[in-house]
Design brief:
2 strands
Amino acid sequence: MKGPQRGDLVVVTAEAALEEIVSHRLSWERAEELGLVRFYGDPVQAARLRALAATPAARQQLPAQPRTTRAD
Protein backbone atom coordinates (compact mmCIF):
# COMPACT_ATOMS: atom_id res chain seq x y z
CA MET A 1 0.00 0.00 0.00
CA LYS A 2 1.32 3.42 -0.89
CA GLY A 3 0.16 6.53 0.91
CA PRO A 4 -3.20 7.26 2.49
CA GLN A 5 -6.23 5.50 1.12
CA ARG A 6 -9.69 6.92 0.51
CA GLY A 7 -11.40 7.41 3.86
CA ASP A 8 -8.16 7.56 5.88
CA LEU A 9 -7.62 10.30 8.41
CA VAL A 10 -4.16 11.83 7.95
CA VAL A 11 -2.44 13.57 10.85
CA VAL A 12 0.56 15.71 9.94
CA THR A 13 3.02 16.90 12.56
CA ALA A 14 6.74 17.11 13.24
CA GLU A 15 8.60 14.56 15.33
CA ALA A 16 9.51 17.23 17.90
CA ALA A 17 5.85 18.22 18.31
CA LEU A 18 4.83 14.59 18.70
CA GLU A 19 7.48 14.09 21.38
CA GLU A 20 6.06 17.07 23.30
CA ILE A 21 2.53 15.72 22.98
CA VAL A 22 3.45 12.19 24.06
CA SER A 23 5.40 13.52 27.04
CA HIS A 24 2.35 15.60 28.06
CA ARG A 25 4.25 18.88 27.80
CA LEU A 26 1.94 19.96 24.97
CA SER A 27 -1.72 19.09 24.43
CA TRP A 28 -3.13 18.08 21.06
CA GLU A 29 -5.44 21.08 21.30
CA ARG A 30 -2.58 23.53 21.86
CA ALA A 31 -0.48 21.91 19.15
CA GLU A 32 -3.33 22.37 16.71
CA GLU A 33 -3.84 25.99 17.80
CA LEU A 34 -0.14 26.63 17.12
CA GLY A 35 -0.33 24.94 13.71
CA LEU A 36 1.98 22.12 14.85
CA VAL A 37 -0.53 19.39 14.04
CA ARG A 38 -3.08 19.21 11.22
CA PHE A 39 -5.85 16.77 10.43
CA TYR A 40 -6.86 15.94 6.85
CA GLY A 41 -9.79 13.77 5.91
CA ASP A 42 -13.21 13.03 7.31
CA PRO A 43 -14.19 15.75 9.81
CA VAL A 44 -16.08 13.19 11.92
CA GLN A 45 -12.96 11.02 12.26
CA ALA A 46 -10.88 14.11 13.05
CA ALA A 47 -13.34 15.13 15.76
CA ARG A 48 -13.22 11.62 17.23
CA LEU A 49 -9.42 11.65 17.34
CA ARG A 50 -9.45 15.10 18.95
CA ALA A 51 -11.85 13.80 21.60
CA LEU A 52 -9.75 10.69 22.22
CA ALA A 53 -6.70 12.87 22.72
CA ALA A 54 -8.60 15.08 25.15
CA THR A 55 -9.25 14.56 28.84
CA PRO A 56 -10.45 11.20 30.23
CA ALA A 57 -13.88 12.73 30.93
CA ALA A 58 -14.25 13.74 27.29
CA ARG A 59 -13.30 10.22 26.17
CA GLN A 60 -16.07 8.67 28.26
CA GLN A 61 -18.68 10.70 26.37
CA LEU A 62 -17.80 9.09 23.03
CA PRO A 63 -20.13 6.43 21.61
CA ALA A 64 -18.61 2.99 21.16
CA GLN A 65 -17.36 2.35 17.65
CA PRO A 66 -16.70 -1.14 16.28
CA ARG A 67 -13.11 -1.88 15.38
CA THR A 68 -12.39 -2.55 11.75
CA THR A 69 -9.33 -3.98 10.09
CA ARG A 70 -8.17 -3.80 6.54
CA ALA A 71 -5.79 -5.87 4.52
CA ASP A 72 -2.52 -4.21 3.58
